[in-house]
Design a protein that fits this description.
Layout lengths: L5 H8 L4 H13 L1 H17 L6 H21 L2 H19 L17 H33 L18 H12 L7 E6 L6 H12 L4 E5 L8 H16 L4 H18 L5 H9 L8 H13 L2 E6 L7 H14 L5 E7 L1 H8 L10 H4 L2 E4 L7 H13 L2 H19 L1 H7 L3 H18 L5 H13 L1 H9 L1 H4 E4 L8 E4 L1 E5 L5 E5 H9 L4 H14 L17 H9 L9 H10 L2 H10 L3 H10 L6 H22 L6 H8 L5 H5 L5 H13 L6 H13 L7 H17 L6 H8 L10
Parallel strand pairs: 1-4, 1-5, 2-3, 3-4
Antiparallel strand pairs: 6-7, 8-9
Helix pairs in contact: 2-5, 4-6, 5-6, 7-8, 9-10, 9-13, 10-12, 16-17, 16-19, 17-18, 18-24, 19-20, 20-21, 20-24, 23-24, 26-27, 28-29, 33-34, 34-35
Amino acid sequence: MIFLDKNNLKGRLNKFPFLGGLLLTVVLLYFRIPVSILLDNLLVRHLFSSFEGGPISDFLFIVLLFLSSCWLAKKQSLKFIYKTVGLGLIFYLFQKTNDYWDFTNLVLLTSIAYWDIVAVSGILTIPLYFLFRRLDKLVSDSETLGGFVEDNSVVSYEDDHFKRNIVASEIASLILNTNNKKSFAIGVLGKYGSGKTSFLNLINLSLRDKNVLAISFDPWSVANHEMIRREFFDLLSDKIAEIDLKMSSLIYSYGRKLAGIYGHSQSWLNWIGFLRGSDSAQSSGEYRQINNMLKATGYKVVITIDDLDRLYAPEIIEVLKLIRNTANFSNVVYLVGYDKEYIQSSIGTISGFTTDYLDKIFQLEIPLPKYEKDDLLNGLQGRLKELLSEEHYDVFENAIIPNDFRNRYEKAYIGILRQNRDVVRFLNSFKIAYNLIGQEVDFKCLLILELIKFRFPQIYELIYSQSDKFLYERSFLSTHEQFYSPLKIKQKDAFDKTTEVTVFKTHLEKLGFFNEEDVLILDGLFRSLFSGSDYNRPEQKNSISYPMYFEIYFRYRLSKYDLSNNEYQQAKSSGKMSEFMSHCTNHGLHKELMVRFLQEDISKERPHFEQVLTWIFSFGRTFVEREGMFRFDYQALIDKFYNYHNYITDSLYKKDIGAFNFFINSLFSNALAPFLFENELIFYLKKKSSDFVISKEKMTHHQYSYFIRMAESNHGLSKETLWLIISPHTDPPISE
């Protein structure tokens, strides 16, 4: 059985192309000749009787029409364009088939008439509209990429990353099918920043072009609560004018009368009486007249009131009065976004209003639909893709997401970024740090530390200022192997089982500021920051765990005492390490550079192995010259190329011991005066054992060669020369 709503049917007939297109078609069909004669006398004969076509005229005419199409596409709404183009095409087709007219063709395109170009330009307006909107979005995205990310609400379905448009569309459909005799109020519930505005926009998007008059009222922009009623009815009157001028005037008069009657009422008890008393605004003749007129239009009036939770208690009550009484009209639907806990708390402070008062106002309250598990992560991922370098984004996508966010630290991720606004705010904070030091520090460490700073700024400061309480430096013999690791203590759990916990966690528990979940989140992030152990040193040598880089993560800049990781990596990849060595020497960074050389993992490829050792031997002379020969960590260097259990020759030289021997010999043979670095290194090699790839005799020969070359040079028998031969570290030279 099918029921027809007469009001709704009337409204649909008012919408193009049904009634407008039908009327135009009827007029053109039955009055074709009179209309043609009228056009001929009023327009065509005066403008075009002496028109002369030509290539220039053709070109100018096409350009003019194209510019007109661009203007329409840029300045007008899609609804207006559809109507204009649709009516224009109907008019074009009837005149094209009308025997009364003889159409002039272009000179450039003889098979096409000027009238045809007019129709084409109209049709072109539609794709131009979408093209301009796309370009506007690209420009907007480009501007965002260079600056901060704006916390904009969703204005199109493409921006709906949380897929809430499905629920929004269903709500819109039910609104359209609801034949309400009084206003129907829908509350959309959600915490601050959870996306209420975006959800309200999605509902309105689904109502667009559906015989709906959409109105957005912002009571928080009104100066005071006494002006809210007046501003509301002024706005309603202005918008209603689009469909009925008489009703608009009536609403304006009705609103001003209400403002005059109730403008001086300051008592909450009077307001309660206003809502409940028999002298309500609904008993007035104007109210009934407006109600009947709204019902007759067939339009659904949807009034969106967002951020009700921005208002103070008197303002909230004033808005609720509008919905419940003074603007309780037929065919009106209110969409109101608010944090229910805040609203209930506010109205509860006013005498006479109970916390369940909202139930009398709203026929329906909808908690904001929850997002899917990965929605926030996808939003973060999409934004980071625009911000990060290819290398860092690859780390985020293929290492951090599967290993951290979706596995070990998923709880931390959910606890820190709880809603879309958090993602935007975090990105803006992270963008500053990343732009300043993103290429200097380890990306993963920076991301985790910035997550802590965003959600728990006081703990971020605590990690920096009291790091000695929570971290200890693993003091290996070699400087380059030292790193910070979480300090742990043994503690018994609820099952009387002894486990190791971080001092950081116990400190947080003693503070008493955080719940158990926050403590676990912070402890998990802290452990992931300082993940090194006895058996696993931090892989990235610019990690926060290494003392040389710890300060940079909090300072956001390099000091004159810091080695630039970015410049170091560029020197490695460009083959300009010699120039970088000179730069570091001139700026007092020779110790830091040698630490980075010794941190290099040279156990994977032969070219890298030989290259790094060549750098160390070359720069070792400078180091010894600046610091003294006994300040160099010779044992650390020996461990990098000693060939324990033939590991180096087997893995890098394919068991070609001769090639390995030749390379090591060349390092000592290519030494430069004053040879103090190489001479001291040989002492430690000879002292270690007799299993080195070069024999002790060969090493002694190198030492003797150093002495002879020094003595025969302009050094003569200087202190450095004599050291090579009389040093207690040096065996007596042998002659060949």
